[in-house]
From TrEMBL:
<protein>
    <submittedName>
        <fullName>Carotene biosynthesis associated membrane protein</fullName>
    </submittedName>
</protein>
<feature type="transmembrane region" description="Helical">
    <location>
        <begin position="236"/>
        <end position="266"/>
    </location>
</feature>
<feature type="transmembrane region" description="Helical">
    <location>
        <begin position="45"/>
        <end position="63"/>
    </location>
</feature>
<dbReference type="InterPro" id="IPR049829">
    <property type="entry name" value="MptA/B-like"/>
</dbReference>
<feature type="transmembrane region" description="Helical">
    <location>
        <begin position="213"/>
        <end position="230"/>
    </location>
</feature>
<keyword id="KW-1133">Transmembrane helix</keyword>
<feature type="transmembrane region" description="Helical">
    <location>
        <begin position="385"/>
        <end position="408"/>
    </location>
</feature>
<keyword id="KW-0812">Transmembrane</keyword>
<feature type="region of interest" description="Disordered">
    <location>
        <begin position="483"/>
        <end position="507"/>
    </location>
</feature>
<dbReference type="Pfam" id="PF26314">
    <property type="entry name" value="MptA_B_family"/>
</dbReference>
<feature type="transmembrane region" description="Helical">
    <location>
        <begin position="332"/>
        <end position="365"/>
    </location>
</feature>
<dbReference type="GO" id="GO:0016020">
    <property type="term" value="C:membrane"/>
</dbReference>
<keyword id="KW-0472">Membrane</keyword>
<keyword id="KW-0328">Glycosyltransferase</keyword>
<feature type="transmembrane region" description="Helical">
    <location>
        <begin position="423"/>
        <end position="440"/>
    </location>
</feature>
<feature type="transmembrane region" description="Helical">
    <location>
        <begin position="287"/>
        <end position="312"/>
    </location>
</feature>
<feature type="transmembrane region" description="Helical">
    <location>
        <begin position="164"/>
        <end position="184"/>
    </location>
</feature>
Length: 507
């Protein structure tokens, strides 16, 4: 592209994406009955259609921006602006955050007092969760209390203030993605496009203000810090600093503690490559050194105000009790159709979820983690980033509850790997389908939304116009590479993996 055409394309995608984001913001503001009411009136259908048009425009701008390799952060910033002042987008979680913050700010323990007692904010909490206590760790609750205090308990501003940590999450996420992509041999610009500038990420972290965003950003910073210090010949310090950040991520949302797996794998790999000892003994020592500060930080923050592990209380809402994308939750609902009380199945579903998750994580470690003495496959040092992505995916799929934004962490981690073109196309398709799934589930049950998402995935794979468009996007993300025109599937300097998967050399 010429300089002029690039400038025109930049102006186009910024304006179209801004318009799309503004329409989504307007829809979130005017939707009188969030969710899927039984009898939508004509006045309600209008905002819904505007939201759908906005989503289409935003996704189109994102795809068109793939070729603009130096404007990822600008695009993300511009597209985020209309989302900042509106009500929570595609989720009611922001109201729950404000309600929990209100309770803590007014001297109540959110682990003992239900969200229905949170003053005027109680009416905004989703009906299913209003009678339950908080499920988030204390780190999130203290942030929510601080934002509520900043808003002086104003109902609207208390919810909107939850976007302050969300924006901070996007800034940290961008820094960590750039740093890790460079360290791991991936293209930072492609990684930014797939993550920070991705509407799937923007709509859920900025629009939906989910605390998953800050948890993920801090967890990635833990991996980045640990790897950077290990490469500076200070692996033990890397484990300590990374462990502190892992503990902090866990107090923001529980899955953050899983970053400790990737931290140990990354540091162990680098230490052995630099001449350090391999074997189960050194590996166990590195696990211990990383775990101690993580547990210490988690315990210290949990002890503030005497909150402790109250998120484990039986009064907290169980994700297995509602319909979600989780296979376990869907099975519970289907058994419930036969007349079995769902409340009686929740403890069983939760236990099954924990067992499956543990087994899956152990399997992921032995498949992609460091296993001293192993021959073939991933090798004795493993593939740490692939391991971390697999662990986060297993946690999401085996959990008792699964929402589309739970898949953002594995998407971000895979984007940090040097990828072949078809994997870039697959991640672009994931961004499209994930965004559409979030929108569709705002109106319908996962029993309808998931089959539609499956059809969309099939179209991305088999429908020639869609597949060709995604292939073009992947080509633009790869940028010029020696021999690209001859091979059609050129790799990066580290992207020489087989046709069956991503290039993960050194990952």
């Amino acid at each position: 592209m010429t300089v002029t055409s690039r400038r025109l394309r930049l102006g186009e995608v910024l304006v179209v994406g801004l318009l799309g984001s503004a329409l989504i913001s307007w829809w979130a503001w005017t939707d009188a009955a969030p969710g899927h009411p039984a009898d939508p009136a004509g006045m309600e259908i209008g905002p819904w259609l505007a939201g759908l048009l906005g989503l289409v425009l935003l996704l189109a701008a994102w795809l068109r921006s793939a070729v603009l390799r130096s404007h990822r952060l600008l695009s993300a910033a511009v597209w985020s602006v209309p989302l900042l002042p509106t009500r929570p987008v595609l989720s009611l979680d922001g109201w729950a955050y404000a309600a929990q913050g209100w309770l803590l700010r007014h001297g109540h323990n959110p682990y003992l007092v239900a969200q229905s007692q949170a003053g005027q904010l109680a009416a905004r909490v989703d009906d299913h969760w209003s009678g339950t206590t908080a499920v988030y760790p204390p780190g999130s609750l203290w942030i929510q209390a601080a934002m509520t205090a900043l808003a002086r308990d104003h109902t609207y501003w208390a919810a909107v203030a939850m976007r302050i940590p969300a924006v901070l999450a996007m800034v940290l996420l961008a820094a960590a993605v750039i740093g890790l992509a460079r360290a791991l041999g991936a293209d930072p610009q492609s990684a930014l496009w797939l993550t920070v500038a991705n509407p799937f990420v923007l709509l859920n972290i900025v629009g939906g203000m989910h605390n998953d965003g800050l948890e993920l950003a801090v967890a990635l910073c833990a991996l980045w810090a640990g790897l950077a210090l290990a490469r500076a010949s200070r692996p033990w310090l890397g484990l300590v600093v990374g462990g502190v950040l892992v503990g902090l991520a866990g107090t923001l949302k529980q899955p953050g503690v899983l970053a400790g797996i990737g931290l140990v794998a990354l540091v162990h790999r680098q230490a052995v490559k630099d001449g350090g000892r391999d074997g189960w003994g050194p590996l166990g020592a590195r696990i211990l050194v990383g775990a101690v500060p993580a547990v210490a930080v988690f315990a210290a923050i949990s002890s503030i105000g005497g909150l402790g592990l109250g998120w484990l209380n039986s009064t907290a809402g169980s994700p297995a009790s509602v319909t979600s994308d989780s296979p376990i939750a869907l099975l519970v609902q289907m058994i419930g159709w036969a007349g079995v009380p769902i409340a009686a199945m929740v403890p069983i579903a939760t236990a099954v979820s924990l067992v499956l998750t543990a087994v899956a994580i152990v399997w992921c470690w032995f498949r992609w983690g460091p296993v001293p003495g192993r021959r073939g496959g991933a090798g004795p040092l493993g593939r740490p980033i692939v391991l971390q992505a697999a662990v986060m995916t297993a946690f999401a799929l085996c959990g008792a509850g699964l929402q589309p934004w739970y898949l953002i962490p594995p998407l971000v981690l895979v984007a940090l790997i040097p990828l072949r073109r078809r994997w870039l196309a697959a991640l672009a398709a994931a961004g499209l389908i994930g965004s559409g799934l979030c929108f569709l589930q705002w109106f319908s049950s996962p029993f309808l939304a998931l089959p539609v998402a499956a059809l969309a995935a099939a179209a991305c794979r088999w429908w020639t116009p869609v597949r060709s468009r995604l292939d073009l996007v992947a080509h633009q993300l790869r940028g010029p590479a020696p021999g690209a025109a001859r091979s059609g599937t050129s790799g990066t300097a580290t992207g020489a993996a087989g046709a069956a998967g991503p290039s993960v050399t050194g990952m």
